[in-house]
Amino acid sequence: MGQWVSSREFATLHKFNIEGILKAAKRADSLSKKFCLYKGKFLPFSYGNGIGRGGKVLRIWSEPFATQAEAEAFVESYIKAQEASLQKITTPTTLTTQHKIGTSSVLAQEQAKALSCPSHFIQSAQSKTMFDNKDDDGQLRALDAFSKASQKDKNLALEKKSIIKEWEVYKTKGVNAKDFIALLNAGGQYSIALSENKLYAWQRAYKRGGLELLLDERGKNRKEQSKIKELGLEELTNKLILASRGRVNISSLHRMLHIHLDSVGKADLADFLAKRSEVISYCVLERYVKAYLKAHPIEAKIIYRGEDAAVGNFLPALGQSNYAVDSINQIVEIDATSIDAIIDTSEIARALGLEVENIESWQKRFVLISLIDTYSGVCSFHISDTENALGVSRAIAKYITTYGKPKCIKSDNGSAFVSKYIKEVLSRLDIEHIRSKAYAGWCKPYVERNFARLQNHLMEWIKGYIGHSVSQRQAIEFFFSRAQRRLKRGQKSNQTNLHTLKELGQMIDAYTHSLMNNAYLQRLDSTPAEAYNARVNEAVRIHEYELCSKLSPLERRTVNKKGIAYGGLWYQSAAMFAHTSVFVAANINNTKELFMYDEQHRFIGVASNLDSEEMSAEMARNAQKIFYKELKARKGKMQEARAEVEAQFPQMLLQAHKKMPKTHMPTLKAINDSNLYQAKLLDEARKNAVGAEILDTTKEVKNETQTKNIKDVSWEAAVLKKAK
């Protein structure tokens, strides 16, 4: 024995995953089945009224069945039992007949009635009320709109009417709505999943307007006309959308439209701002914007991603990049991009014997230079401090060492790729150079796509990952709290325990050869490694030492008695003294060596410098950078010291002045029994005397030596007294 229970109760009872049950039931319902298969069990189910998605609740028979036959037998017997229970209450009606669209007797009658109605009868009926549906004539008055509807909408409307008619019959016999709906849904007579809300809504609509109101008009008014078009705002709205940058701010557009409507007297801006009323709803505007952007994908792409993205997505593709390629290494694409991760380069300083104090100053982003064969798809990556000619030369050498010498290399117009240095290197290697037009990444689709594959699938999982955009980097940083970020005192919170340059290089090489070269490509119907290996006998290999000799441009140098001067150092070789001048090329792997060539560019030998240490060109350049960096830092400290001394010197001088002993001033001697200074003041007082008060002051000064109470007769006192 069993019973109908809710899906949640069933999942709890049998310890099943409720989400899995819901998905299985949904799939079965879409196939018009009354049972679903879940974990080897067949579960009869039905949808009833209740709280849930669309006002429906899923009910499942509490006892699952082991076989499909048992489940089918149960469903059939249950439906028959429900029909039998209803037949006890009322006489058989159209409900006991299998109702299908096109086969139902009720629907067939309604279709015949609707479709056979003469047009002149409909026109004459339009003059009468549309709400009189007591007879067939009243129903036909709604057929003008009905006749213009699609066949699908007609069938649905007739199906709704059939359900309403049946429900009216059963209702008079005392059948409640829940039992009626359960039987219709279980029997599968109609294509519509019935609910109480739908049944009552259809009944009300049919009584008001007949078949016309049973037509599904959802969304049709929006397609044909909108409030924006009605108000004549279509042009303005389109203009505002096209004027957007970065995104379409619908809220701002909503306000702008109401500002315009207020200016033309069609809206009250104060009421809109106070949210008392609005002429155009936010939802209407949102639907309009979405529809416009969908109809104008190029403009939408420009707004959200910019012109480059629009070109990359919508530029007509006239063939493929490898249209003329039928073997490996015929055309190899090259490009460079910044690595989306921070790398610890302090190992370079330690290799040069320097102490690393501020670790953050040795954290930086490097550049990734990649080459890819357009035929097979095999690729290589080289890490460089910047996009420079030496790094490009290294990347080309790495590809040649791994896959052989390309016949042609295709690049953009980056300064490093079109430099004189690279031109001569490619000429010495006998490699053709093709330059694509500026800002045309789609001309190198393979290498551009390869960068995306590496950045998205490798860099996102390594230490120091900073995101592919500014917003992503901010999100990564904001993983830490504000307090944590402040405690770092400016140091990026995720830039700790970073990979070294060597570690990252090893990871990239391992990922390239193990995963990227073994990923299936539909255009090849194989992996890049398989496509390359099938043609590996066509690859041209160059000895590493010979390759190294061609990775620098040739420069003419004069041979004198001390040898050859190059880079501030002297190089010597016995073979060079047979020539007055030679062409030299630096060994980028060893700064102690120069490759020498005669006037016909024939190899002569190797000149050496015995005074310098052996190091690569990058190491030497980094050593120079470190020196200048250290020099700049020391000069900065000197400038700070100077500024500090200049700021403190006046105070220091004042303090010293206060503490040091002073010389005494000599005593003034009297002239004619009178002080000369007092005589001067008396004379000035006479010149400025006004009134009796000053005369009295003069008398007091004359009798100074005779009186004990001497008044102040200074010029300042006289002036102050006058002011009072």
Describe the protein.
The chain is extended. It is an alpha+beta fold and 724 residues long. The chain is built from 32 helices and 17 strands. About 7% of the residues have low confidence. α15 crosses α17.
Q: How would the blueprint of this fold be written?
A:
Blueprint: E1 4-6, H1 7-14, H2 18-30, E2 35-38, E3 41-49, E4 56-61, H3 68-87, H4 105-115, H5 119-125, H6 136-140, H7 143-148, H8 151-172, H9 177-187, H10 196-209, H11 211-214, H12 220-224, H13 227-230, H14 234-242, H15 250-263, H16 269-273, H17 282-295, H18 297-305, H19 307-314, E5 332-338, E6 343-344, H20 346-351, E7 363-364, E8 367-373, E9 379-384, H21 389-403, E10 408-411, H22 420-428, E11 432-435, H23 445-457, H24 470-477, H25 482-487, H26 501-514, H27 528-533, H28 544-549, E12 555-558, E13 564-566, E14 569-571, E15 581-586, E16 593-597, E17 603-608, H29 617-659, H30 676-687, H31 692-702, H32 715-723
Parallel strand pairs: 5-10, 10-11
Antiparallel strand pairs: 1-4, 2-3, 3-4, 5-8, 6-7, 8-9, 12-15, 13-14, 15-16, 16-17
